[in-house]
From TrEMBL:
GO terms for molecular function: DNA binding; DNA-binding transcription factor activity. Coiled coil: none annotated. One of its GO terms (cellular component) is protein-DNA complex. Residues 22-79 form the HTH lysR-type domain. Keywords: Activator, DNA-binding, Plasmid, Transcription, Transcription regulation. Transmembrane segments: none annotated. InterPro entries: LysR_HTH_N, LysR_subst-bd, WH-like_DNA-bd_sf, WH_DNA-bd_sf. Pfam families: HTH_1, LysR_substrate. Belongs to the LysR transcriptional regulatory family. SUPFAM superfamilies: Periplasmic binding protein-like II, Winged helix' DNA-binding domain. It comes from Rhodococcus opacus. This is HTH lysR-type domain-containing protein.
Amino acid sequence: MPSGNDVAACSSNESKIEIEHMEIRHLRSFIVVAEELHFSNAARILYVTQPTLTHQIKQLEVDVGAQLLVRTSRKVELTEAGREFLIRSRQILASIDDAADAAARVSRGERGKLAVGFTGTATYELLPKITRRFRKECPDVELVLRGEMLTPALSEALVHRELDVAFLRPPIIAPELEVRVLRSERLGVLVPEWHPLADHRRIDLSLLATEPFVAHPARAGGAMFTVMLQSCLASGFRPNVVQEATETSVIVSLVAAGLGVAVLPMSVGAMQVVGAVLRPLSATTPGIELAVAWRQGDISTVRRRFIEIVDRTLAEEDSPSIDVEGDQLAADHRCDVCEARERHNGGAVLVVGHHRHRRA
């Protein structure tokens, strides 16, 4: 013979089973009836017949195990249990609607989280444009940016799911990754503002043979160091690297401090720095590629939305660092103020970028 506890447990289990079979449409029907307190009006609003609605409410009361409405020929009233159930039903449906909306927004790439890593030389021009547009179009996506990182570290972080997307420099040796080359950038040389080469419109790499270099670490295996080294060797010399720095911004600061010169992509010229001048290398110097990468098989809608924004941004931008001949890159781009001042006298360079201001 079952004990009292067994009977209670069975009753509880039966109640759970009944509630599990409760239909959401019955909750919606109950809410409309409770608000109208009139079955005919409620049936018309719900586009069902009155007998169908009556059956739904009776079934709901069976599932709940309590009378929710008092029905007479003249009126409909909520019981005390019905008033409490109405409050909870509204909360349940609101939660369901929120969940459905959240799922739909995630499926459209409008909600979620995205971790993006980047190499330092992609920071100053392209990345700000993309992140501004992504935040504008997807304000509810949590965008986590990680940098500056070199390509080997970025590849490893992607493979280990620490990043979802990365901007890096080929070659990328990781079969698990999907890699898309975005563009090829021309290289320039960054020199202190007082350096004799600062007044050159463009610089031949061979002129740097006796110069001290500031560079990314060779041991880290970054693409920027490899391209710089290969270019120097092709010009007949091995660069004398006197200072290494992982972050591009630090390299720029060290050059401005007079510690040496640096070979960097021309896109770094978007960074305004006092004390250094970026000049394009001759057209015969190879460029360096910038790519975006993600894990193969990644079906994340947020990731796909981000890549779409990358593609649109690249299609719309008009940057002098992209696929432009050396002569055009070498143009000084001095503004009218500079030209007017230089007609009177020369002076020290104040700001570094794609053009220079001179002190009158």
